[in-house]
Amino acid sequence: MSSTPLRSLVSSASRIPALKRASIPPSSRYASSSSSSKSSKSSTQTSPLPNDDWTLPHIHVGPTHPSRYSQHYHNTLSSDLMYMTYSHRLAQKPPKPEPVQPPQTAYEANRPRPPIMRGNRALRTKTTQIDVDNVPKLESVIIHTMVKEAIANKSALLSAIMALRAISGETPNGGGKKGSSGVEVIVAKKSAAAWKLRAGMPVSVKVELKGDAMYDFIQSLVDFVLPRLRDFPGIPLPPSSTPKNSPASLTGIVSFGFNPTTMSFFPQIESNTDAYPRLHGFHVYFKTSLRGENAHEHARTLVSGFRIPFHRR
Amino acid sequence: MSLAPRSRSLIRPSLSIRSAALQRFSSSSSSSPSSSSSNAPPIIASLLLSRAPLLTPTPTELEKTYYDYSRSIKHSLSSPLPTEFYFKSGSLPLRRYLKAEHEYETEIYGERLAGGKPDNIGDIPPETEYEILPRNHWEEKDKKDGKGEKSLERYPEEEVYCLLQSKDKKKWVFPSTIVERLQSLDEAINDNIIGPNGQLDGKGMDSWLVTRKPVGVVREGEQRTFFLRGHILAGQPTLTPSSNYTSHAWLNVREVEDRLRKQGDEKLWESVKGMFGIPEQEVEES
């Protein structure tokens, strides 16, 4: 299939959240429920309200099903993770005094503070204290795809947008949830003449999943995709020579990439692979609540609890 | 000689460090044996062996109703599915989808809003039928086999814990062992309880210690019992004749509490209940 129906889909889908927030004329009140031709017929016959100034109230959509992996985390994983990552040494250490903040000027008040620098580096990230109230947990999962062809041809992004939308099922503020940003197009920050890239060009697509949507993504990844990968030994661990103090080891983010064929194993994509002009490789970032010392190891422990295997090269 | 440094050394020391420590401790104890060390009872390592839940909890009536309601709200807010993108025209999946969609719309909006049946659906062959096991199929199988409390599939929606019945007093206890000199807690557990020659006969079961750190301690005067956390992954414990136990049981939290309270171990239950996720003091709200 060509990219023409894709384009119309992408443009039409972006209008939907606007429709939900704005006041809707009575004739289209049921337009969102089913196919529009049928519902408009029925709504003209009987309108539930006489006036036209009726606006759609704010509707919050709660969870629609019990989330398997979320329950697995809360019932099985969390207590083990607390015991595994708890540090007696850290718990017995008296809390360090907060670094002295320089006095604030009127300009600086109520503005975000710049990091306190030691030399030309920011002070070390504070290690997360693990206790009963603060068990390592997943904050969000980010799926990210860079499309190289988009530098020359912007419409190459459309198939990536559609694929991520099918995998994640996210829309901006979908279901009245604040903070779900939907599929976003990322523009280049810097120019790179070698690749004919200029700052401001749309080059990649990402989507951030939180809450139950995040656990549902993990479920489809772990139950449908990973078992069907050919010769898949697991996610490669970083070499043991990786410095323990490097910024990447202190952030508690586990990331790995997959090749384009992997995308076709998602059941959401598999049902109509022909509709996508091409499939894309993608990166997955598991953002955890861990920071500081051993954050990376503990984050991997958490991720492997969701049946994602790791292997040493 | 104090026992504190030993329990605090959580990281397995390398062999050279251990041999040095052995030398130091043995020489110091032989030269100046302190009175407290000779009287102090040995440390006991105990294992809280559990099986994780096998099934997700069954939603209650309220939860089920709420999920159904949210699903219908979500359905009514969602934009119509672009069928020309996801299905080939006139294909079987499309006809299946249209039929299912119409049935669901009739269910949540009623006949009038759902409209008439979609045309040209035609005959739809039934989908492959899979055998769906009922949620209590383990329970029924155990009843048939007469496994009783020894079945590892008891209470599939809850966590179950291993308790052993001791030979002499017929009391239900957690599997435990004495920690030898300069032995770490996890070594004692691995060698004497879940190892191949342990009390539970590790040859017939696959188990995993969550961490080498103790997750709880019970003090009775000078006596200290440290609890380690473990999970059984497969198999069954078989009690060796040399062990001091007659039988084992997989019990959920309520049963563990009942059994300990009935045999007069109220004090023990009060000190271990934190490990089962039960708060120390019930918060009374007036």
Topology of this structure?
The complex is a heterodimer of chains A (313) and B (286).
Chain A: H1 4-13, H2 16-21, H3 36-45, H4 68-85, H5 88-92, E1 117-118, E2 121-122, E3 138-146, H6 157-168, E4 183-187, E5 202-209, H7 211-225, E6 235-236, H8 247-250, E7 253-258, H9 260-263, H10 267-270, E8 282-288, H11 295-304, E9 310-311
Parallel strand pairs in A: 6-9
Antiparallel strand pairs in A: 1-2, 3-5, 3-8, 4-5, 7-8
Chain B: H1 4-8, H2 15-31, H3 35-39, E1 44-51, H4 61-77, H5 83-86, H6 92-109, H7 111-114, H8 137-145, E2 160-166, E3 172-173, E4 176-178, H9 185-194, E5 205-209, E6 216-220, E7 223-235, E8 245-251, H10 253-262, H11 266-272
Parallel strand pairs in B: 1-7
Antiparallel strand pairs in B: 1-2, 1-4, 2-3, 2-8, 5-7, 6-7
Domain Large ribosomal subunit protein mL46 N-terminal (chain B): 43-122
InterPro entries (chain B): Ribosomal_mL46, Ribosomal_mL46_N
Organism (chain B): Kwoniella europaea PYCC6329
